[in-house]
Amino acid sequence: MARPRIAILARFAENTSATRYAAVITARRLAEAVWAAGGEPLTFLPVAGSNWAERLEGIDGVLMPGGADVNPGSYGQEVSSDHVYDVDDLADEVDISLVNYALGTGMPVLTICRGTQITNVARGGTLVQHMDEPHQHYVAPVTIEKYHSEMGLSSAQVEASCYHHQVIDTLGEGLEVIARSAQGDVEAIKIDAAGWAFGVQWHPEDNFDTNKPQAELFERFVSEAASYGASR
């Protein structure tokens, strides 16, 4: 049986040791987590004005990954922190267009870190440009207050491995907060969409092989993608 095909929008890198120059990348751990869950991870180049109906032909699910900061201009603010980094307007534009398209099709969508933040922005929300206490190299238990079964989790508590200094501020339309950190920051959301759609602020790929609920999240996402593909 063919693996469900999972589109992962690439991130831009100024340079990598392997490419020497600028690169388009997908985090290895993220691709491995999708593969371990039974999916086929496919990296998509961010291209302005993409016809997603054409580009996503044969794709069964969309994963919006982590990455650099969203331009505050995309949610109506000026840059107010020196910590805002690696803003790329093309990346923001393509992220928003893909999120809006995928959520309207019924295609399963999983968003991670920046992916969750850009989804909030796409739905009219805003972000905290720099947290008072950034969650970088930060691991802590998080309890999913609602929908943990729908997310495929056998336990409502997960060990969330975080690396972010921005977080959702004003919540976007059609988003429901289903988990918060001990400090009160948004850690997971349910996304009102035509199909299965959830977002997490942490990086489940970091410890999917040691913390069962993280693997279960990818497994449910891939399972939903398989069902979506079979229904087409």
From TrEMBL:
Keywords, in A-Z order: Glutamine amidotransferase, Glycosyltransferase, Transferase
Presence of the UniProt keyword Glycosyltransferase in the record: yes
EC number of the protein: 2.4.2.-
One GO molecular-function entry: glycosyltransferase activity
Signal sequence residues: none
SUPFAM superfamilies in alphabetical order: Class I glutamine amidotransferase-like (SSF52317)
One Pfam family named in its UniProt record: Peptidase_C26
Cellular-component GO terms for this entry: cytosol
EC top class named in words: transferase
InterPro entries in alphabetical order: Class_I_gatase-like (IPR029062), Peptidase_C26 (IPR011697), PuuD-like (IPR044668)
Gene3D superfamilies: 3.40.50.880
Name of this chain's protein: Glutamine amidotransferase
Origin species: Aurantimicrobium photophilum
